[in-house]
Amino acid sequence: MSKTYHHGDLRNQLIEKGLILLNNEGISSFSLRKVAKMCNVSHSAPYRHFQNKDDLIQAIAREGFVKLHTCLKEAVERYPNNPKLQLRELGQQYIQFAVQNPDYMRILFTNVLNDPKSLPEVNEFSEHGFDLLKNCVIECMKDPKFRFKNEKAAILFAWSTVHGLSMLLIENNNQKDFNIAEVSKMMFESHHLFFDE
């Protein structure tokens, strides 16, 4: 017997199970029929919420970017008018989000989606979090102790540092050997990567 969901619950369940299916089988094998089976509902049930599989994939990607952006926005708002602390907090929260949401990170930042720009709205949402980092770095450059004088180089270094470390941590099968809090602190709290002390 199919499980009965209250109105609104099925959409979230489809996104949750769809995320798992995308990670396990990739976009080429992804189908609404498979997601429906994972949710224990009829094959037609997903069409009440999504027009087709691309519509669901877009919703999954959008959900991931919104969650990430919300996390980073809170980090920035924690230290208003203090870009130095904002940069530290952005780095730490990005790593924490990645470790806690590895399935979303793999979908958003690997080739699972093939070309994310081909999905309407996804590219727009993907830029929101990056803009927070970019603006923070630009504000940090006003500090004479900031190591970087080239804006593009500074943004690239900050992005590659936090994103590269995040992906290494979530893909490392021995992640238990790392203390995430200590790693984040080592990379960002001292500020030595970005500022002359």
Please tell me about this protein's structure:
This protein has helices at residues 9-25, 32-38, 53-77, 83-100, 102-109, 122-140, 151-171, 180-189. With 197 residues, it is an all-alpha fold. It has 2 domains: 1-50, Orthogonal Bundle (Arc Repressor Mutant, subunit A); 59-189, Tetracycline Repressor, domain 2 (Orthogonal Bundle), CATH 1.10.357. Helix 3 (53-77) packs antiparallel against helix 4 (83-100). The longest helix is centred in the N-terminal third of the chain and has 25 residues, at 53-77. The protein is elongated. The N and C termini lie far apart (65 Å). Mean pLDDT is 83; it is low at 1-7.
Write the layout of secondary structure elements.
Layout: H1 9-25, H2 32-38, H3 53-77, H4 83-100, H5 102-109, H6 122-140, H7 151-171, H8 180-189
Helix pairs in contact: 1-2, 1-3, 1-5, 3-4, 3-5, 3-6, 4-6, 4-7, 4-8, 6-7
